[in-house]
Amino acid sequence: MEISLQRAELTSQPVQQLIAALNAELTGMYPEPGANHFALDPAEVAPGRGIFLVAYRNGQPIGCGAVRLLDPTTAEVKRMYVEPALRGGGIGRRLVEALEAEARRLGAERLVLETGARQVEALALYTRCGFMRIPLYGEYCLSPATSICLGKPLDP
């Protein structure tokens, strides 16, 4: 399976399609009020601040993920998604590895993320990628029943 990762604008059609699919999946899994946190601004993934990547297979967008700087030494993974039928094939891992590399380029020494407590596949992926549970941070402190925060140090 030929997969390519490409930087994309948050407002582009492929990104909007993938985010709509991600949002629909998350809304179905977490229908309770306040359970979802979708904040990501185009400026946060602009060059020098972060990146939004789209995974393509045979020219078709099949997954995405972003990283943004929270502070000079901490970056956060956002909006990770792979089409359900293609999960388990290494696409998510490639996205995480590419986002880690970008976080290092941005000067981050630590990478953090939030995922939902019901997202077993995502938790397994992040654990395989070396993430460990950390205390809830930021806006995720408002949803302790559904949010799990993970982090890992980044080797230079």
List the keywords:
globular, Aminopeptidase, single chain, alpha+beta, 3 helices, 7 strands, 156 residues
Question: How are the SSEs placed, and which strands pair?
Answer:
Elements: E1 3-7, H1 13-29, E2 50-57, E3 60-71, E4 74-82, H2 91-105, E5 110-116, H3 120-128, E6 132-134, E7 147-153
Parallel strand pairs: 4-5
Antiparallel strand pairs: 1-2, 2-3, 3-4, 5-7, 6-7
Q: What does this entry look like structurally?
A:
There is one protein chain. The longest helix is centred in the N-terminal third of the chain and has 17 residues. This protein is of the alpha+beta class. The protein is built from 3 helices and 7 strands. Helices cover 26% and strands 33% of the residues. Strand 3 and strand 4 form a beta hairpin. It has a single domain, classed as Gcn5-related N-acetyltransferase (GNAT) (Aminopeptidase, 3-Layer(aba) Sandwich). The chain has a 7-stranded mixed β-sheet with strand order 1-2-3-4-5-7-6, sandwiched between helices.
